Amino acid sequence: MWWGVGAALIANLLYSVGFVLEKRALGGLPALSAGRPVRVVVTLVTSPLWLVGALALAAGFAAQLVVYRTLPIAAAQGIFVSGLVLLLLLSSAVLGERPTGRERHALGAVLVALLMVVASVRERDEVVGGEAPWGLVLAVSVPTLAAGVALYAQVERRARRRHRVPTNGIGYGVAVGLLYGVSSLAVKGAAGRLTDGGAGEVARALLGSPYPYLLLFTAVAGLVMSQTALQRCRASLIVPVCTTVTALFTAVVGTPVFGERLPDDPLPLFLRVAGTALALSVLLAMPRHDPPSPARAARRRDRTCPPPNSEDPHGHRRDPAAHPGLPPRQGAAHPAPGPGRAL
């Protein structure tokens, strides 16, 4: 079991470094569009810094295979999400990103929730599943992939609106997290087929299952969607949201699919269920939009506040500086003489 914990910590380091390097590289690349996947891939592979980040993520994926062979799904996801602390430190130091106070509190609550999940693991009582019915895997995976792609397309349509409120990437993170949740199930299934037989036997076992094809789809679609979203949004927010969705989906769905059971003791059972519910509720309560920048707020005030000496809807001139501080309906202290008024 401790081999799995060590591999999970190494995977956390590799994933955090990989995401930060990719985000740094994306800042110097032309604008990406998920509607042009070939152009996205061609643009990405021309960046040496991005390729280094991609290699770090690939090494993290290899470490993840070791994790799923030695740890139950719920424990593995809890350790993976604890790596968000490292990601936030790196994104602050390297990218200069500063999360808001509400986001810091929300991410802290997510870490507490997933530490509760890790605390619920009892090594002597855990069962590491290996095989799962293919029909059940596909029945869970295909609708989830469709939901992730549909959500991403909906967020893209909203992002193209002219007078939209700027999004902070929550929708992007949830959509990509669903794809990576299916990818985690496929990694779990593929890890169970890495037997001690020869290379030919392992290859036949893998190619005869749905796992490599799910991995291929999630790798290509996830690459285009995640990199487009990462270029537009803060890594310190979109990656934690994506990771949380992936962890919750994999733990909640993967546990019964692969035959891993919940704890029998009341305390571990409470910790696992309550931690999952807390992380999900925090995710749903997070704001969907960034606060407007000072320049954007100034432009909005300019549109809504009429300039001095402008005309009202009835054609009369406004003079907001006239008679300051006077009560309503009170005129000037010394009204100008009119016709018929004695001097």
pLDDT below 50 for ≥5 consecutive residues: which ranges? 293-308, 319-333
Distance between the termini: 102 Å
Q: Count of DSSP E strands? A: 0
**Proportion of residues in β-strands:** under 5%
Which sheet architecture does the biggest sheet show? none
What string, H for helix and E for strand, traces the elements in order?
HHHHHHHHHHHHH
How would you classify the helix and strand content by structural class?
Answer: mainly alpha
Total DSSP helices? 13
Mean pLDDT comes to: 76
Q: Helical content, roughly?
A: 55-70%
Cα shape: globular
Radius of gyration, in Å, reads 27 Å
Provide tags for this entry.
343 residues; mainly alpha; 68% helix
Fold topology:
Blueprint: H1 2-26, H2 37-45, H3 48-70, H4 73-82, H5 84-95, H6 101-119, H7 134-159, H8 170-192, H9 199-207, H10 211-232, H11 235-257, H12 266-285, H13 294-304
Describe this structure in words.
With 343 residues, the protein is mainly α. It is 68% helix and 0% strand. It is built from 13 helices and no strands. Helix 1 packs antiparallel against helix 3 (48-70), helix 1 (2-26) packs parallel to helix 5 and helix 4 packs antiparallel against helix 11 (235-257). The protein is globular, with a radius of gyration of 27 Å. The N and C termini lie far apart (102 Å).
